[in-house]
Amino acid sequence: MKKVLLFFLIVFVVIAALSLLTIFKGKLQLGEKVAVVRVSGIILDSTSVIEELKEYSNDRSVKAIVLRVDSPGGGVAPSQEIYEEILKIKEKKKVVVSMGSVAASGGYYISAPADVIVANAGTLTGSIGVIMEIPNVSGLMEKIGVETQVVKSGRHKDMASVFKSLTPEEKEILQTVLDDVHDQFIEAVSEARGMKYEVVKKLSDGRIFTGRMAKELGLVDELGNLEDAIILAGKLAGIKGEPEVVYKEKEFSFIDMLRGEIPNHLVGNVFSGISLKYLLTP
Questions:
Q1: Quick check: is 61 catalytic?
Q2: Is residue 161 annotated as a catalytic residue, yes or no?
Q3: What phi and psi values does residue 217 have, to the nearest 5 degrees?
Q4: Among 80, 171, 173, 253, which residue carries the largest CB count within 10 Å?
Q5: What is the pLDDT of residues 191-213, one digit of tens each?
Q6: pLDDT tens-place string over residues 221-231
Q7: Residues whose CB is less than 8 angstroms from the CB of residue 248 and which lie 6 or more positions away in sequence, other chains included
């Protein structure tokens, strides 16, 4: 009987020890990992990217972060928010950018503050500029016999209306706004890359560069693929040997479409008025 009790006691102790080990492993966050955060497609919102960055920033087992950028850019504000978050994370951990096929305009903006930027030789990057697109459907409305009545309290309140053409004065006002946002882009690259403002300004006329060209110009540090960027991040973080790589699986879901979120992004941009973009357009 004593032997049976002793056996069950040993089994209980082993199970309890394994359970405690599992719990404490999560809390202690053992290991030396490199996290990969992906930014793909047009940057419409920064929330999910920032949440993922913060999660890995607070994870003590993650020693460095690789930001995999495959984006032509997008909204100005979301790009700036991701940029600022990376600056905060750099105070705690190393951040390496790995550029995919395209990392242009806003895609380059969010890459600029990284400790090291790694691009493929054929990556399309650069496109440092700002674009504002305002559709004009006044001709169509006139053809189908629809007239828009506007009541406003400010002279320029309907400046970005799709139902009218811009006046010369309105174009001048909007150009002033674009010039200011463009200047913010140049300053951000200059500060993040340690380059003189005038040098960056000469490269900031919206043109694109290959990864190899960008390296020669100082916009990129190294040529290589994602694996090279991960190994480099591990070395910068002081990880010996090949680091363990962690990343979140992102699956395509029709839920967003059912909720109407994707159509709202597409249609909303047409009728939302002024929309500033750090975006590479075809």
A1: no
A2: no
A3: -90, -5
A4: 80
A5: 999 999 999 999 999 999 999 99
A6: 999 999 999 99
A7: 52
